[in-house]
């Protein structure tokens, strides 16, 4: 069951080319570094297929980062939990809203991607804290934490550590896209058509009729 659900989510994301969260992948001014040049307290970014992942470098080849993970729900085996989080564990962690701020090696954190250092400094109009304070903030937060894709993700963690305020440009971008969809009258019509199709296919029932009426109405009132 879990395997089927994970596969479905992955296919949907890939099919829709879900790059709404990408904030750095097309920036030609972004700098890629060898990890040996990292300084304790640096903010690290790695482009993933669906999003940008963030962490704080702690020195000695260690990175603190917030990761959704379903495994701690089922086991207390620290050795098993500390293994590299797979996409399946990550996706199910997002759905269950469970995560932890963990420490991994730079290699495990990067997961095969190039690493960009302190690029957020060029985007946010905020003075960064001293590197040592950034690293200490990250170390104090290590452990289990609630997860929210929009309100408490890896970007909120690193921006709180480095700038003193949790923000997420990826969340802002997603909300702006969602706002445009809601404001587009065509989305109301499309939702209504899909609802009518579901009624014709599945028959009249509260599970088909109510969404057909309420969702288009809500979108219409919000637009």
From TrEMBL:
Transmembrane domains' residue ranges: 188-221
Gene3D superfamilies reported in the protein's UniProt record: endopeptidase domain like (from Nostoc punctiforme)
Signal peptide positions (record): none
Keyword annotations: Acyltransferase, Membrane, Transferase, Transmembrane, Transmembrane helix
InterPro entries (alphabetical): LRAT, LRAT_dom
One Pfam family from the record: LRAT
All residue ranges annotated as the LRAT domain in the record: 43-170
GO molecular function list: acyltransferase activity
Protein name: LRAT acyltransferase
